[in-house]
Amino acid sequence: MRLSQFHLRTTKETPADAELVSHQLMLRAGMIRKLAAGLYTWSPLGLRVLRKVETVVREEMDNAGAIEMIMPTIQPRELWEETGRWEKFGGQLLKITDRKEQQFCYSPTAEEAVTDFARQELSSYKQLPVNFYQIQTKFRDEIRPRFGVMRAREFVMKDAYSFHITDEDLAREYRNMHAAYTRIFTRLGLDFRAVQADSGAIGGDASQEFHVLAESGEDSIAFSTGSDYAANVEKAQAAEPAPRGAATEAMTKVATPTQKTCEDVAALLGLPLQRTVKSVAVMTEAGFVLALVRGDHAVNEIKLGKVAGMADYRLATEAEIQAHLGSEPGFLGPIGAKQAIRVVADRDVAAMADFVVGANEAGFHLTGVNWGRDLPEPETVADIRNVIEGDKAADGGEIRLVRGIEVGHVFQLGRKYSEAMKFTVLDETGKAAAPAMGCYGIGVSRIVAAAIEQNHDANGIIWPVPMAPWTVAVCMINPKNDAAVNAAAEQLLGELQSAGIEAVLDDRGLRPGAMFADIELIGIPHRVVVSERGLAAGTFEYRARRATEAENIGRDELLARLRG
Amino acid sequence: MRLSQFHLRTTKETPADAELVSHQLMLRAGMIRKLAAGLYTWSPLGLRVLRKVETVVREEMDNAGAIEMIMPTIQPRELWEETGRWEKFGGQLLKITDRKEQQFCYSPTAEEAVTDFARQELSSYKQLPVNFYQIQTKFRDEIRPRFGVMRAREFVMKDAYSFHITDEDLAREYRNMHAAYTRIFTRLGLDFRAVQADSGAIGGDASQEFHVLAESGEDSIAFSTGSDYAANVEKAQAAEPAPRGAATEAMTKVATPTQKTCEDVAALLGLPLQRTVKSVAVMTEAGFVLALVRGDHAVNEIKLGKVAGMADYRLATEAEIQAHLGSEPGFLGPIGAKQAIRVVADRDVAAMADFVVGANEAGFHLTGVNWGRDLPEPETVADIRNVIEGDKAADGGEIRLVRGIEVGHVFQLGRKYSEAMKFTVLDETGKAAAPAMGCYGIGVSRIVAAAIEQNHDANGIIWPVPMAPWTVAVCMINPKNDAAVNAAAEQLLGELQSAGIEAVLDDRGLRPGAMFADIELIGIPHRVVVSERGLAAGTFEYRARRATEAENIGRDELLARLRG
Q1: What are the Aminoacyl-transfer RNA synthetases class-II family profile domain coordinates in residue numbering (chains A, B) (predicted)?
Q2: How far apart are the C-alpha atoms of A346 and A292, rounded to whole Å?
Q3: How does DSSP assign A133-190, residue by residue?
Q4: Touching check for A81 and chain B: CB below 8 Å?
């Protein structure tokens, strides 16, 4: 391929409305162009990268035994009514009325459509297991589409759906897909982690997310130095705390006139923040609850909501706090409430001794507080906090926090969709049985942006070779006037092709500085310069995208290096 | 690939609501499943064929220098307002309102989106010419979606758009695309014709359609035996008629009491139909017009509408006919009108002598009528008729009529879109110039159905090799119990793969009859049977899909035949 026959349009200016580096660089490299909010055209350069990702995903799905098909993007309301998701999916579902006043949606995911396909195609256990997948355009009507293709409204997704007679077989395919995803992200050259996701009612290992690690990631991920344990912060657990120490102090009321936060109280008293307890007042259907976490910890809303009796809790109002504790916020605590209240203590709080809480009196806290002596043992002890960097992990390692971009999700759906849509097959005994289902998604277009977030420098994108639009750029100096340069570049291109290395010839005739800046910006992993001077010396100038210096090397060495 | 690891579901019953053979066979072969009216899921088998077509289209577009990109399917109203097509496109445009009450449509074609892309990307003549294409899902909200994927609402289209400084360069690219399309349909193994389409205001060769020839085609196409001339019947022209002969008869009024059609009059008088003239009464803004065509010809409405003064004509009412001709329909003619009327004569009518027309008197016709003697020479002579089978063509050949399915269209758009959307580039003189545009479409999913219309028999589909899901099916007899058959089939599969021949192993363990019926139904071009008996004899049973008999042949001959 010759760049003069391609279409490339780069810009130096950083676009004003692009926050993320990947969005900025994709615009500057001319990979995408905005058509409207959350809608992007993929230019020829952008499409080359997108197709590279698609190809790796397709090959590994095929290798894993999944079978490709494709469903319509426009799907009838009736189908989505069968599962109740026409309403439940919410505002992200783009609803459409056709010329005959029939209602449809643009598929944001395809559980309904694939289950409808399956109930037409599958009637016997003999046809199971089967895993259907498609690589297709999806639409989610995001309220705030932003970050370019990272959170576009129209995007490319690989979605797979498997069908099984038994839960065990679903679990087997789930592991199979997990392994395929690991191969996909490994092949793409990405630094990633499989992370336990909060999977609602299903629990356990029935749902995992695959995250590309990047500082700009929207998700916070906890992993352990002691094993490959990793979990979304919503779900991550630290190890059980060490047993409670003995009480050594007497409970004392101290003046904290303006100190309303644990940080301020600890500073005033000269105590570590870890000695203080934060009291969070909430209301449930059964009444007032004080949730206690250590001063340096934060309540994890999902975990607290899962404690018995705490579903659908909300923060208490100031009036409710006054009525139950007789104090204004900032000085709350579990001792001296005006009415009987429920106390839910985090595991770490339950293991504390000689701690500090609010006195339920404006301007005062209590120090040296101890369970069982100054107040009853907590009725409920549970893990209700977010993990923090440095926590002990259950596997003996230490918890570390990183940020990630979710690019894949594997999920054991169970029979939710097959039962709602009355899809059964005859099992071995001749009885109608609703198959168990799994679903497995990959954000194909998002991977492109995520890869850039992880791989860039001040000069532009640095593609992992499997995603690069071309592996090598052969840059020609003065191509319009130098026949020898043309001949040498052509010959090199042929040799690279023979070696199975995808190369592009930059024959546009730009000044070297502008040409090199383009090639760096668009992230080509290897650059080779063919010049009159180099030819005279029998060398090419070679520079890897991440290298700081170029080197002059002979052809054999060049080919050896590029062959890797 | 092993069929036991694939998903195949065929049925014997012909679906009740499928009219076209291709629709019936695609359903029976399990290539597609209906999700809703005009919306089809492509099964794994169907998708294999669709991808084959896509691949050939992509390769030839790339070879022709077009550059692939991809635009959003959902496009903002504002863009379509710029060209006025938001209203003008009509009911086929699926309009959508998002959660912010912004309006969008699902792209049925992408002139607006690509022109918007181009005006962001292209600013100088140096970047031209360029031809962008995409292979993408489109939507047209058909009133009567039917015939399966032949006229689905959601479908796959390859659409390309080229940009040029000069009309000459547009014409060059148009020929380049014409040649690429010819290669595409040739490579796909289809019997097709490039046909001159009626191209409205642009005229000439600025628009051509590519049709797959099939009896079930919706379009009627005229071609000449004397050259590669072919045209849509709306546009096709016969050769100029031979010069008018001399008058030999006297004009005579004859009684035709119940004979109101040319056929009936000719039968009564014992004259060939070609001696009669049909008078069609129409009204224009300027008044009453009698259009004359030979009795065996039919008025071509598009051609008649293009005659000067005839735009927006309509058929005359009986009252208007009485007022101008003093007769009831069935006996009309150009002689003896009550008021001055305009006569538009088809070229063939103008060349007639001794002909028959209505007498403008109920129950009578005139015979032996001659121009210049019995009535004035016609004021307007033009080609206003449809060609018929057997017409002389301008190239000396004969006109033949066939039916076709439109699968491609090449079009010189000119500057309609670039001017409407204010897209200019700087030309060589530094002036802003609106580029000329071409557009080039291929109905990728429709090709699959069209190929079946052209290639099938009572047993099912007969794929041209380039579109076949697999080239060869290796059918195993008793695969579950016969290790020797398994080993031989595996070995053959390996040898075929080494020879670059795509084969599938039918290891499902069906009875031979059911297995062969499936393989014929889904249209695999070559079938090889591996059986214990064959192995004992050192032969395979081979049958080409179109052959009437199977043959037992040795391995070397088999491989030689399959290699073609």
Answers
A1: 38-464
A2: 6
A3: EEEEEEE---SS-BTGGGB-SEEEEEEEEEEESSHHHHHHHHHHHHHHHHHHHHHTT-
A4: no
Does A205 have pLDDT greater than 60? no
CA distance B486 to B492: 10
> SS3 for A522-536, per residue?
CCCCEEEEECHHHHH
Eight-class DSSP state of A3: G
Q: In 3-state terms, what secondary structure has residue A32?
A: strand
First to last CA, chain B: 22
In B, residues 105-124, which contact A (CB 8 Å cutoff)?
106, 113, 116-117, 120-121
Domain span including residue A357: 252-382
Residue A64, φ and ψ in degrees, nearest 5: -85, 0
Closest Cβ–Cβ partner in B43, B50, B130 for A7:
B130
- The tokens of A151 are what? 């959170």
For tokens 């999977």, what's the residue? A199
Residue A458 falls inside a structural domain:
no
| Same domain assignment for residues A55 and A139 | yes
Q: How many CB atoms lie within 10 A of CB B447?
A: 31
- In B, minimum Cα distance to A112 occurs at B35
Q: Which of A334-343, B22-31, B53-62, B463-472 has the lowest average pLDDT?
A: A334-343
- In the block, residue with structure tokens 């010189």: B412
Domain edge (last residue) among B332, B352, B382? B382
Nearest CB to B99 within list A42, A71, A141? A141
Picking from A8, A32, A39 by the largest number of B CB atoms within 10 A of its own CB, the best residue to mutate is: A39
Residues B507 and B444 in one domain: no
Q: Is B498 exposed, middle or buried (0-12, 13-18, 19+ CB in 10 A)?
A: exposed
Mean pLDDT for the stretch of residues A165-175: 96
Q: Count residue pairs from A and B with Cβ separation < 8 A.
A: 144
Phi then psi dihedrals of residue B319, to 5 deg: -65, -45
A4 contacts on B by Cβ (under 8 Å) = none
Query: Residue ranges of the alpha helices (H) in A20-100?
Result: 21-28, 44-63, 77-82, 85-88
Mean of pLDDT values over A201-209: 64
pLDDT of residue B203: 40
As a whole number of Å, the end-to-end CA separation of chain A is 22
**Which residues, including other chains, have CB under 8 Å from residue A277's CB and lie 6 or more apart?**
A262, A292, A293, A294, A295, A333, A349, A352, A355, A356, A357, A369
Contact B39 A74 (CB under 8 A): yes
Tokens of residue A487, six digits: 């001949």
User: Is B363 found in the same domain as B479?
Assistant: no
Pairing of strands A342-346, A380-382: parallel
Question: B116 CB contacts (<8 Å, ≥6 apart)?
Answer: A35, B79, B421
CA of A291: how far to CAs of A275, A381, B359, in Å?
16, 10, 105
> Exposure pattern of A311-343 as b/e (b: 16+ CB <10 Å)?
eebeebeeebbeebbebbbbbbbbbebeeeebb
Measured between CA atoms, the residue of chain A closest to residue B124 is A9
Q: Which residues have CB under 8 Å from B285's CB, separation 6+?
A: B312
**Which ipTM value was assigned to this complex?**
0.89
Position B387 in a domain: no
Cα–Cα distance, B201 to A101 (Å, whole number):
35
Residue B219: band (very low, low, confident or very high) from pLDDT cuts 50, 70, 90:
confident
CATH number at B347 reads: 3.90.960.10
Strand partners, A331: none
Neighbours of B249 (CB within 10 A): 12
Residue A73 DSSP symbol: S
Would the pLDDT of B426 be above 70? Answer: yes
Closest partner residue to B35 (CB to CB) among A35, A116, A127 is A116
What is the C-alpha radius of gyration for chain A, rounded to an integer number of angstroms? 30
What CATH number did the domain enclosing B59 receive? 3.30.930.10
